[in-house]
Amino acid sequence: MNDVKKRIENRLGWKSRWGIIAVCGVLAFAVTALLAYRLYKRSEPDLLVRGARELLAKKDYAGAILDARRALQINPASADACRIIASILESIGNTEAIDWRRRVLRLAPDSLDDKLALAATGLRLNQASLAREALELISDREKRCVAYESTAGAVAVANEDFAAASRHYEEALRLDPNSESNRFNYANALLRSPTLGERESGLQILERLRTSLKFGPLSLRALTTDLAAHNQLLDALKFSSELQSNPHVEFGDKLNHLDLLQVTGSTEFRTFLHNLQQYASMEPAKVGLLMAWMASHQLAGEAITWGKQLPSKTISNSQVGANLANCYIAIGDWEGLKGIVAGLNWGDAEYLRQAYLARAMKELGDADGFRNEWRVSESAAADQSDGLKTLVRLVDSWGWKDLIKELLVRAAQANREQEWALFLLYQIYAQEGDTRQMCWAAAKARVLDPTNELAENNFAMLSLLLKSDVDRATDLARALYSKQPTNPIFTSTYAYALHLAGRTQDALRIMSFLRPDQLRDPSIAAYYGIFLAASGAHAEAAGFLELAKKATLLSEEKQLVASAVRELN
Description:
Elements: H1 2-57, H2 61-74, H3 79-91, H4 96-107, H5 112-124, H6 128-135, H7 146-158, H8 162-175, H9 180-191, H10 196-208, H11 216-229, H12 233-244, H13 251-263, H14 269-280, H15 284-295, H16 300-307, H17 312-315, H18 318-331, H19 334-342, H20 350-363, H21 367-382, H22 387-398, H23 401-412, H24 418-432, H25 435-448, H26 453-466, H27 470-483, H28 488-500, H29 504-511, H30 516-519, H31 522-535, H32 538-547, H33 555-568
Helix pairs in contact: 1-2, 1-3, 2-3, 3-4, 4-5, 5-6, 5-7, 6-7, 7-8, 7-9, 8-9, 9-10, 11-12, 12-13, 13-14, 15-18, 16-18, 18-19, 18-20, 19-20, 20-21, 21-22, 22-23, 23-24, 24-25, 25-26, 26-27, 26-28, 27-28, 28-29, 28-31, 29-31, 31-32, 31-33, 32-33
C-alpha cells in the first residue's frame, strides 16, 4: 500500500514539475516576444530609413518617401525619416519642406546641422527671410564654424547685403583656407562692392580660380559677366574666349560670346556665328535659342535664310517654329509668316501656331480669317496647362491690349490658372481706374485663396468706396485690423469704415497709433486728412491733404479728398 502511495505521489510530483516548467516556458516566450517587439520597434525604423536613403540615391523619390513614412508610423520621433522627406520635398520645390525641417528641429532642437538645413531650405525656396530667421536660432558658440559662415554668407547674398556676405565668406576662408567654394563666393560678393579696390580683389581671386577643375568655368563666366557689365568689353571678350575652350562651356556662354564679338566689331563674329549654326542644328532647342538671339540682334533676315536650310522636322518643332515666326514678324513679312506656320503642326503648342497664323491674317487685312484662327487658338490654349498664360505673354509682346484683358478674364473664370490672371486683371483695372471691376477681381481672389489678406483688404476697401455691402466690408476690415493693428493699409481701411459709420473720432484714434512716417505716406495721408477735415481739425488736415496730391488715387478717393479740401475753405 505504501508503495502504491509513493508511486502516486511521484506521478503527481512530475506533473507539478511539468506544470511549472510549462508556465516558465510560456513566461519566457512572452518575455522574448516582448523583447523582440521592442527590438523591432527600434531596428525596423532604422532599416526603413536606410532603405529610404538608398532609394533617394537612386532618385526613386516616391519609394523613399513611402519608406520614410512607414518608419514614422512605427517611430514618430524618427528625425532621420523627417530629414529624408524634407530633402525630397525641397528638391522638387515644395514649400511643405519647411514644415518638415521645423519638425526635425522640434525632435533635435540642439542640432546645428538641422538649423543650417532649415536656412538652406529657405534659400532654395526663395524665402530669404525664413533663412535669416533660421540663422537666428544658432547660438554664438555654434557660429564658430565654416558651415555657419558659408550659410550666413549665402543668406546675406539672398538679402542683398553683400558687405555682410563678404565678411562671412572671408571668415569661412580663415577657418578653411582650402575651400574653393567659399573663395569663389567671397570673390562674387566683392564684385558687388561699391569700393573699387574690393571689386578688383574679387576679379583677381576669380582669375586665380580659372584653372580650377570645378570652379574654372564658373569663374570665367563671372569674370565675363562682370567686365561686360562695367563696359570693359575687350577684357570680357578675352575671358569669354577662354571659356569657349573649356569642356564645360554652355550654350548660353556661346550666345554671350556672340554678343561680345558683335559689339566689339570682331572679325571673328561671322565665323563664330556660322560654326554655332552648324553646332546648334543638331538640337531644335538650341536652334530656337540661336534664332531668338539673331532676331533680337538685327539678324532676323539671316535667321530666315538659315531656317530655309533646316530639315522640315526641325522647323516643325514648336520652339524653332515660334522663333522663326518671330523673325518674319521682325522684318514685317506677313505672307512669309503665313506660309511658314500654315502647313505645320506644333502638337501641344498648336494654339501658338494658330495665334501666329491669326497675327499674319490680321496684318494682311483678312478680318474673318483672323477671328476664326484667334477663336481656335484661344480655345485650344484654355485646354493646355499654362496655355492662356503663354498666350497672354505673346499677345502682350504684340501690344494687343484688348485681347490681353479678354484672355485674362477667361483665365480668371477657368478652373485653373486663376490666381495670376486675377492679379494681372486687378493691375489693369487699377491703371484704368475701374473701381467696380477691381472689386470684382478682389472678390474672386479672396474666394480663391481665403488666406490672401491683401485681397481681403482690397475687397473691403473697394466695397466701402462703392458703398456696396458695407456691413460685410466693415466686418472684414475690423477682422484684419484686429490681427494686424500696426499695418497702415489695414488700419486706414477699418478707419474709413468707422468714418462711414459716423465714428470719425474712433477712426482718428486708431490712425493715431501709426508711426509718423506711415501717416505721411501719400495714400495713407489722404485718408488721415479726410478724417481730420471731417473732425474740424482743418489746420492739421491741410498738410496731409497736400501730401495726398502725390498719391495715385481712384476717382472715388479723389472726390473724397476734393470734398475734404472744400471743407477747409
